[in-house]
Structure formats: C-alpha cells, structure tokens
Design a protein that fits this description.
By secondary structure, this protein is an alpha/beta fold. A 5-stranded mixed barrel has the order 14-15-16-17-19. Strands 6-2-7-12 form a 4-stranded mixed sheet. The protein is built from 15 helices and 19 strands. The protein has helices spanning 6-22, 26-38, 42-61, 90-102, 151-154, 168-175, 197-207, 214-220, 225-238, 322-325, 345-356, 396-406, 419-427, 440-444, 484-498; strands at residues 2-5, 71-79, 82-85, 114-115, 122-123, 131-137, 142-149, 158-162, 187-194, 253-261, 268-275, 281-286, 313-316, 333-342, 369-371, 410-413, 431-434, 447-454, 463-477. The protein starts with a strand and ends in a 6-residue tail after the last helix. Helix 1 (6-22) packs across helix 4, helix 2 (26-38) packs antiparallel against helix 3 (42-61) and helix 11 (345-356) packs across helix 12.
Amino acid sequence: MSVIRQEDLIASIADALQYISYYHPVDFIQAMNKAYEREQNQAAKDAIAQILINSRMCAMGHRPICQDTGIVTVFVRVGMDVRWDSKMSVDDMINEGVRRAYLNPDNVLRASILADPAGKRTNTKDNTPAVIHYSIVPGNTVEIDVAAKGGGSENKSKMVMLNPSDSIVDWVLKTVPTMGAGWCPPGMLGIGIGGTAEKAALLAKEVLMEPVDIYELMERGPSNRIEELRLELFEKVNQLGIGAQGLGGMSTVLDVKIRDYPTHAASLPVAMIPNCAATRHAHFVLDGSGPALQTPPSIDQWPDITWEAGNARRVNLDGITKADIAQWKTGETLLLSGKMLTGRDAAHKKMIEMLAAGEKLPVDLTNRFIYYVGPVDPVRDEVVGPAGPTTATRMDKFTRTMLEKTGLIGMIGKSERGPTAIEAIKDNKAVYLMAVGGAAYLVSKAIVGAKVLAFPEMGMEAIYEFEVNDMPVTVAVDVNGESVHNTGPRIWEQKIRTEHLKVI
C-alpha cells in the first residue's frame, strides 16, 4: 500500500503547471515544425514561424507561451490500494497546487477564473478552482494528467447528438469551418464518440492529453476503425485550407485524436474539442516516494527558426489618420510603433454602458487603435508580461457603437471578425489587424511601455496604454470590408483540391 503525502501532491501539481506554462510538449513542437516545413502560403508560414520562435523563447526564458494561462483541468486515477497522509481533501490539495503555481513570483501566471459566472463574474485571483475528474482504478499509485486550457480554444468546443446512421466525418467537415480561427490553428482536434452527451465531451477532452503520433500511425497503417477515422479526418480537415491562424494554408490540424465508449442503440453522441497552438499538458505518477517533478527537455529539441517582416510597412500610430489606414490592403504585414490602448470584453461592456448613460469615457479613443488583450503581470524588469491577442469576435457586438461614438479607427485582435463587425468596419472606414495567437511572449518584446489608464479594478481586463516598437500584425479587414479570413481559406481550399497539393 502506497502512502501519498499532502505536500507531495500539492508540489507536483504546482510544478507541472509552471512547467507547462513555458514548455510545449516536444511532440507538439516537432509536429508544428513539420507543418512549417511543408507550408506553401507565406502568411501562414510566417504565423507558424512566430509560434515556434515564441515557444523557444518561452522555454529559454521560463515565461508563459500564451497570456491566457488557461483553466486548469485535471484527470486523476486513484489506485484502490492508496492511502492518503493529508488533512485536506484531494480537491483542496489540487487547488492549493494551482494557487501556488499561478502566484509564483518568479513566473506569475494570469488569473482568468471568475466565480459567479452568470452574475458578478468576480475573479478568484489565483485561478482556482480547477476542473477535476476522478477514476478509481486497481493499483497503489495516483496517476495524474494536468492541462491548462485556453478560453479561445475551449469556446470552440462542439457537441451533437447524431442519428446512428449519420456520418461523423460529414459532421466534422461541416463543423470545423464554423469554428473560425479563434482556436488558433494549427492545433489538435479531440473527438469523443459514444456514451452519453457528457461522456462524449469528457472523452474528447481527455484524449487531447495523448501525444501527437499521426505520422507514426501513417507509417504503420491503421489497425481498427478509430485509427482509420483519424487518418481520414486528418487529411480531409487539412484539405479545407483553413490554415494557420485561419489565413489559408496547408496545415489546419497537427493531429486528430479520437476516443470512444459504448452508447445506446438510439444514440450517437459526438463531441469535438480543439487544442490550440498553446497546447499545454503534463503527466505524472505518485507512488509514495515523494513529489513527481517534470524533467525539462533539451532546448535542442526546438527548431532554430528566424523570422523577419521583409517588406512590411512601418506604421507610426501617433498621429495616424483615416487617410493613412485607407492605403492598407488585406494580407499586408505592418510593424506598429507608438501608443495604442487595450480593452477586452469587460472594458467594452463598461464603455458601452457609459455611452448609453451619456457619461464621458475615461479615455479618448479619437483616431486611436485598441488592442484586445489581457496581459500577464510583469516580473523582474519586464514592462509587461506575455501579451498576445484574445479572440476578436467576442467584441463584434460592441464594434459599431465603438466606431461610431468614440472616434476609434482601428482594432487589433486574434482570428476573424464576423459579418456584423465587418459591416461596421466597412461603414466607418476603419480597419482590423490580426496579431498571431500563441506568440504572446514574442509580442510582449515589442511593448516598451505600459500603464493602466482606466478600470484598474478589472485586473487584466483594465484599459492599458501600450507603447510599442515594431509590433508585427497583419491587415485582416481593410476599410472596404475585405477580410483575409474569408478570402485566404477559400483560395487555399481551391488550390489544394485543384493542384492536388499533399497536406500530409
């Protein structure tokens, strides 16, 4: 019988969460590098390069891969012969490990968890509680998988109750394009099949903990229907041409993971959950001998890739006008310098409420750009912590009012804009720029000044003013309403199909 001590579990959870905040799984890096090497769309290739460079920087600097350091999800398999030496419940031990990891002064992680989700949505300040799933299994060890799941990819989760005669492949191929680029492709798709509605979702989440092995599967060949389905979906999803960051290209998924479970004769539950370009998970086993700490990989495992903006247009945001932005074209790379404002969901909601009440806003947005970001707190000599973009579509419902009532002329975020926002951008001759999701530490290096201007009580959702120097972005929606996220995937799906380009 193994005796698992309280402190050993707490320390192991804290160590794993710190570790995965700055180390991608090596198998994921290798798969991303393969995607980089075969990518033919230069815009998508540049985005993958930034993700890989960011990953290497984070591994060396021990700072978060993504500013969204996630909601913690834990799968715990407790051996039936285990005894606990603890005054705390297992839930409380895990949450204490989360608390220590996220408040670690050497690498502060962003607190993103809100209590009272249908009400006041108050930040818990330490990213607790975790979402914990238990299994009681034979044996005398405690086996744990821990992940930090970003909100952008989690929000794209899909669930359906198909008829038994329906095609799972058809549903996936119809559904993936509706997910947009907010999940930061290329990443992984976890698919759960069978059981009940909640069981299918749990299967989809748990299977994402498995390593990327699609190329090994191709080499040896499938041995069952699930493996056949993985290969079919991997090829057909990549043929959609969605590509890195939704810009169009050869690689939309790096792997498709599937797990199934027996189900009712009348049912075919299917859940699909994506993992983003900030895939973060770790595994450890406690056997009573002490804490289980992660072993850092060699930095040599990361490809030594460089990226330069080439013929990028340099833009000074200080004094910019609508006449200036009218010259920009979709797909064009810009290097931004000067001052920009920041604001996410909570700040936009507050500003809209103030405008409706006839109140003066605390910041002047005339001819300004706003960056959709919730940065990590800085450590040591940092101006700001990792500060990558958040999903822009969440701000779509605020866009027309913001453009028409405040003098705002530009927005910066992650992924596509929806039809409502694009129409507002076109009507107001504004622009939307896209920064690469999954390159938060790299982006932060372009930020040379940061101060809070309004709503400090909102924490990471406060309005900051950033001063930037050569921050790389892509023109995603121009003043005429043309969106690269509409044109890019359409062009590359056609190229893949007509030119018979190999996506695997």
